[in-house]
TrEMBL record:
<dbReference type="InterPro" id="IPR003136">
    <property type="entry name" value="Cytidylate_kin"/>
</dbReference>
<keyword id="KW-0808">Transferase</keyword>
<feature type="binding site">
    <location>
        <begin position="9"/>
        <end position="17"/>
    </location>
    <ligand>
        <name>ATP</name>
    </ligand>
</feature>
<feature type="domain" description="Cytidylate kinase">
    <location>
        <begin position="5"/>
        <end position="214"/>
    </location>
</feature>
<dbReference type="GO" id="GO:0016301">
    <property type="term" value="F:kinase activity"/>
</dbReference>
<dbReference type="InterPro" id="IPR027417">
    <property type="entry name" value="P-loop_NTPase"/>
</dbReference>
<keyword id="KW-0963">Cytoplasm</keyword>
<keyword id="KW-0547">Nucleotide-binding</keyword>
<dbReference type="Pfam" id="PF02224">
    <property type="entry name" value="Cytidylate_kin"/>
</dbReference>
<comment type="similarity">
    <text>Belongs to the cytidylate kinase family. Type 1 subfamily.</text>
</comment>
<dbReference type="InterPro" id="IPR011994">
    <property type="entry name" value="Cytidylate_kinase_dom"/>
</dbReference>
<keyword id="KW-0067">ATP-binding</keyword>
<keyword id="KW-0418">Kinase</keyword>
<protein>
    <recommendedName>
        <fullName>Cytidylate kinase</fullName>
        <ecNumber>2.7.4.25</ecNumber>
    </recommendedName>
</protein>
């Protein structure tokens, strides 16, 4: 079986950053599962649909999207990388993601990303639902204040308008919805390594996870 490394955790915990570093180091592919929920949110908004509209299930099932090597994301051949990262899109993605039938529509597409030589997959339910057999599972966390601060800096750096106070509230709401939904709620898999990165640099997180992954992938080969 293709080795999969799962990285789950709340918004701003550093999943995407660490997933990119680990994938590059291992020469593995990447799945940014949040992007699929964000793409569904964007396509639904473009079609003028509310988050509860029944048509959204079909939109999720037939998403015409593409990811390139530089991290760009395309929806119907249009580069939507920038729109995808806004907090508004994140909030709608979180609402849509609470619907079991939307999650089901995206399930196989996510599993299809597992191809040789391996995959690093980040999201909310990678270790619990999508890849329960993964040999290495990580749950990345950080305090809500630290996560809001990171997101604020990231948005400003990328030229977006952002309010720190609004971000703290948005992150709080999204955490609550993602953790308390009935299907695939955000939680660590029983066999996940939980790392709180509040007081760790990106390099320190990477070093800790690298050791864990080496151990897990070696165990598997024995
Ligand atoms: N350990 C860390 N210390 C400081 N900043 C971090 C750390 N991990 C991630 N970041 C920064 O926080 C921001 C959000 O990280 P990101 O990987 O997008 O989080 P997620 O994918 O979990 O939402 C990015 O600007 C990233 O560079
Ligand atoms: N595997 C996943 C990935 C994302 N989601 C939902 C819940 C999240 O709030 C949104 C956006 O996820 P995304 O990982 O892009 O968000 P962050 O980068 O962590 O802020 O999608 C999910 O339910 N399951």
């Amino acid at each position: 079986m293709v080795p999969v490394i799962t990285i789950d955790g709340p918004s701003g915990s550093g999943k995407g950053t660490i997933a990119r570093r680990l994938a590059a180091r291992l020469g593995f592919g990447m799945l940014d599962s949040g992007a699929l929920y964000r793409l569904t949110a964007l396509a639904s908004q473009n079609a003028g649909l509310a988050p509860q509209a029944p048509e959204i299930v079909d939109i999720a099932r037939h998403l015409a999207c593409r990811f390139d090597e530089e991290g760009n994301v395309f929806l119907n051949d249009e580069n939507v990388s920038r729109e995808l990262r806004t907090e508004t899109t994140g909030a709608i993605a979180s609402q849509i993601a609470a619907r079991p039938e939307v999650r089901e529509a995206l399930l196989q597409r996510q599993r299809d990303f597992a191809r040789a030589p391996g995959l690093v997959a980040d999201g909310r339910d990678m270790g619990t639902v999508v890849f329960p057999e993964a040999p290495a599972k990580i749950f990345l966390d950080a305090s809500a204040e630290v996560r809001a601060d990171r997101r604020y800096k990231q948005l400003i750096e990328n030229g977006f308008d952002a309010s720190f106070t609004a971000l703290v509230e948005e992150i709080r709401q999204r955490d609550e919805r993602d953790r308390n939904r009935s299907v695939a709620p955000l939680r660590p898999a029983e066999d996940a390594l939980v790392v709180d990165s509040s007081d760790l640099s990106i390099d320190e997180v990477e070093a800790t996870l690298w050791r864990y992954i080496q151990d897990r992938l070696t165990d598997r080969d024995e």
